[in-house]
Amino acid sequence: MSANHDDHHDAPDGHGRALRLGIGGPVGSGKTALTAALCRSLGPSLRLGVVTNDIYTTEDADFLRRAGVIDPDRIMAVQTGCCPHTAIRDDIAANVDAVETLEERFGPLDLVIVESGGDNLTATFSRGLADRQIFVLDVSGGDKVPRKGGPGVTSADLLVVNKTDLAPMVGADLTVMSRDAAAVRDGKPVLFTSIREDRGAHSVAEWVAGVVDSWRHQHSHSHLS
Amino acid sequence: MTKALVRARAILRTGLDDRGLTRIETIRSDPPLTLRQTAPGEVHLVSTGAGPLGGDHLRLDVEVAEGTSLTVRSIASTLVLPGAGRSLMEIHVYVASGATLVFAPEPTVLAAGCDHRMTTAVTLAADASLFWREEIVFGRHGERPGRCHSRFDATAGGRPLLRQEFVVGDPEADGSPAVFGTARCVGSTLITTETPAEGPKSEPREAEVAEGVAVLPLAGPGTLVSALAADAVELRKRLSWGESRVSVQAGSPARATVGLRPPASRFP
Amino acid sequence: MDGPATGAPAVNGATLGLPPTQTAASGMPLTHGLAGLLLLADSRLPAGGHAHSGGAEEACRTGAISGPEDLARFLRGRLATAGRVAAALAWSACEAAQAFSRPDKESREPGSPASSGQARVADPETAWRLLDAEADARIASPAQRLAGRTQGRLLIRTARRIWPSTALETLARAVPDGAHHPIALGVAAQAAGCTPDQAAMAAAYTSVTGAATAAVRLLGLDPVTVHRLLAELPYDSVIAEQHDWSALPAHAAPALDLLAEQHLRTEVRLFVS
Ligand SMILES: Nc1nc2c(ncn2[C@@H]2O[C@H](COP(=O)(O)OP(=O)(O)O)[C@@H](O)[C@H]2O)c(=O)[nH]1
Ligand SMILES: [Mg+2]
Fold first, then answer.
1. Biggest alpha carbon distance in chain B?
2. Whose CA is closest to A53, among A115, A135, A123, A126?
3. CB C141 to CB B214 under 8 A?
4. Is residue C254 scored above 80 in pLDDT?
5. Could you tell me which residues belong to the region Disordered (chain B) (predicted)?
6. Do C157 and A97 count as a contact with CB atoms less than 8 A apart?
7. Does any ligand 1 atom lie closer than 6 A to the CB of residue A30?
8. From chain C, which residues contact A within 8 Å (Cβ)?
9. Count of the separate structural domains present in chain C
10. Cβ separation of C51 and A79 shorter than 8 Å?
11. What pLDDT shows up at residue A123?
12. A209, C64, C120, C198: which could join C37 in a potential S-S bond, CB 3.0 to 4.6 Å?
């Protein structure tokens, strides 16, 4: 089915559209910082859009706009009515609408990042919204968090453990975190970052670029379809 | 209930004189609905006798001819009183192309025990201008109002512009923070914004909101000022503020600002 | 697995070869349309409704709603005004969608509801734009129009995947930015097999449930108390057969307009509307 550009109710099936990347994780772990870092590193080579799910205000969207890492119009904020989990998992309609609005306005895009409003460890993105997802933890929650698991930690396509610069201060043992995460994640990748020190989160950006690349190959738009 | 009889019917029509100025062509009225011309292109509703009373059926027809302008005001507020059955006030208006109507009577006050129905149908040609103010006061001082159901329908260029009903004295809606809140009066002013026959669409207009009043650009070519207040004086103040915001936004010093401001009443 | 394709042992009349025991006067089973109604009215329907408070968030913020008594008055007023208008629009939309989907126009009885609406005189897309303009004329507040269209667009997107139908497609084409929510609901209801009355019931019900839930979340009210308020509301009183689109109910709620506009200008907010 070809997209009808006069009809803003489309539900594209993945062909010829951007990869949708969910970034989830507890409040304060560095999701917005990571989003900004990815825009910084990938902005020059990929066409980007960002959807934020702020809990209260448009703070995350405003932060990203001020950070100047992406054209402010390419950031859309979604309100979640007290339920950030609902908006990324059970009722994704508003987020899908935001993503499709961005694609329609600025498309074609390569990557749309959807930052969740901040979750507990059980929250994951619906496959109807995110094609791939990153779960962001930080070391200050303690080094036991990966062991506790939860769908976010175990099933995300990439687990990011952020704020490694704080590890000595909070007494978190990164080798323990690394070993526990590997044990519950069945071989899926884990990356340690300090976005404070590496403002482009280069290891994560590299992973994302790889994912976008293979998405493009799998879903390249056939102009005959 | 017996069928209401038309007790009074008033008709008002404008036309152009030889010099191209508005003149009142027809002015016919029946007590208690009495019309008086007070200036060129201006007519006042003068109530002779109390009312409407329950059972009264009043009808006013207004036709503003092409290129003319008419202002309709009233000397005093209309006090709706109980009587034998329901009272009805029916207004039918046609504003032709290039014509302007300012309709700004004093408020309708709903006395205790009244049972009133108001219907207004305004048909606007595509480039007609309208300033229409309606104020309803829920009872005289300290009085619980009777019932009132009003319906206002305006179409512009054949398309629906504004349709709104108010029900006062309905236990479901009275005192509801969703409907009138703690207000004792409700009012609105519909101001149509002239749409040029051709050329680009006008700038998107911004809504504005202040204590008890909102300036609401409609989907069609018009703006509604909508207000709630504790008393009639406050209500008028709020509506006037909103009306002035519409003129400011309209920007053009032409009819939108000058012609559509209701002139100050000649009556103290 | 053995047995019939339906899996579990069937005990309904159809499978046992019995005629349906209960039928309404129309010849339809009495449960006709109910499954669609339940799905559409369920707050778990993934169509974005959970993020709208229908003015309740702003009313809570300003203190206009502070407890169950205020909330009850808020809900009653909302139902009697916005709910009544929504119900009428949904009724009309569902009825028009039914009329469009009826292959043989002659089969409509003269004077029956199906032959009444403007649907008959226009092609579907023109008719949808007309009904949508009637909705616009009843919603003075731009903030409320925006919220209504957003919810309508989200519902159409969701509904056309659940209950694909020609009427949903033509509605999506006719109003690309999203038809007003009650119209989307009425057309979705027809696609889901509901009657116009059921569509109107879904509209009346969803006109108050979002506000009620929002108040529970924002004020920490006892959810059972609030559900009792919902149970006591006179939904039936706002549902009626409709014939003339220009004459549909147009009950205004100036306080809701003020709340909607203030809400849009409030910095800290959890809900879209
Ligand atoms: N020390 C340190 N602080 C960080 C790092 N990444 C983010 N932060 C800070 O952590 C706080 C929360 O980050 P934010 O991205 O808003 O978290 P979110 O709620 O997950 O979006 C902010 O004050 C960031 O500056 C990091 O690598 N190290
Ligand atoms: Mg954030």
1. 55
2. A115
3. yes
4. yes
5. 246-268
6. yes
7. yes
8. 44-53, 150, 153-158, 160-161, 172-173, 176-178, 214, 217-218, 267-272
9. 2
10. yes
11. 80
12. C198
Residue of B nearest to C83 (CA): B178
* Ligand 2 center to A115 CA (angstroms): 7
Measured between alpha carbons, how far is A96 from C249 in angstroms, rounded to an integer?
Answer: 33
pLDDT (tens digit per residue) in A155-213? 999 999 999 999 999 999 999 999 999 999 988 999 999 999 999 999 999 999 999 99
State whether C178 and A6 contact (CB < 8 Å): no
Mark whether C116 and C216 lie in a shared domain.
Answer: yes
Task: Please report the sign of the dihedral spanned by the C-alpha atoms of residue B189, residue B194, residue B200, residue B203.
Answer: negative
Q: Round to whole Å and give the CA distance between B6 and B56.
A: 7
C121 and C182 fall within a common domain: yes
| Band of residue B32 on the pLDDT scale cut at 50, 70, 90 | confident
Quick one: three-class SS letters along C24-38?
A: CCCCCECCCCHHHHH
Whether B contacts A, i.e. 3 or more CB pairs less than 8 A apart, is: no
CA dist., res. A54 & res. A84, Å (int): 8
pLDDT value at position A147?
A: 87
Question: Does pLDDT of A225 surpass 60?
Answer: no
The answer to whether the Cβ–Cβ distance between C250 and B218 falls below 8 Å is no
- pLDDT tens digits for B54-76? 889 999 999 999 999 999 999 99
**Can you give the CATH number for the domain in which A34 is found?**
3.40.50.300
Task: Summarize pLDDT for A105-151 with one digit per residue, the tens.
Answer: 998 999 999 999 887 777 899 999 999 999 999 998 888 888 888 88
Ligand 1 atom with the shortest distance to the CA of A193: 27
> Which of the other chains make 3 or more beta carbon contacts under 8 angstroms with chain B?
C
Q: Is residue C122 part of a domain?
A: yes
Residues 6 or more apart whose CB falls under 8 angstroms from that of A56 comprise C268, C269, C270
C251: containing domain:
33-264
Ligand 1 neighbour A163 (Cβ under 6 A): yes
- Among all bound ligands, the one having the nearest atom to the CA of A140 is 1
Nearest ligand to the C-alpha atom of residue A196 = 1
pLDDT at A120: 74
Query: B204 touching C, CB under 8 A?
Result: no
**Residue A60, CA distances (Å) to A57, A65, A100, A225 in order:** 8, 9, 20, 38
Shared domain check, C60 and C17: no
Render pLDDT for C24-78 as a digit per residue (tens, 0 to 9).
Answer: 566 778 888 999 999 999 999 999 998 999 999 999 999 999 999 999 999 999 9
How confident is the model over B161-177, as a mean pLDDT?
94
Distance from CA of C25 to the nearest CA of A (A): 38
* Chain A residue with the nearest C-alpha to that of C155: A93
Q: What is the complex's ipTM, to 2 decimals?
A: 0.90
Question: B163 and C136: CB-CB below 8 Å?
Answer: no
For ligand 1, is residue A118 a contact (CB within 6 Å)? yes
Tell me if B205 sits within 8 A of B153, measured CB to CB: no
Distance A34 CA to ligand 1 centre (A): 8
pLDDT per residue over A50-106, tens digit each?
Answer: 999 987 777 888 899 988 899 999 999 998 887 888 999 999 999 999 999 999 999
Q: What is the mean pLDDT of residues B182-203?
A: 74
| Span from the CA of A138 to the centroid of ligand 2 (angstroms) | 13
Summarised one tens digit per residue, pLDDT across range C64-110 is 999 999 999 999 999 999 999 999 999 999 999 999 988 755 444 33
C63 and C143, same domain (yes or no): yes
Same domain for C23 and C56: no
How many CB pairs (< 8 A) connect A and C? Answer: 84
Range of the domain at A89: 16-217
Q: How many domains does chain A have?
A: 1
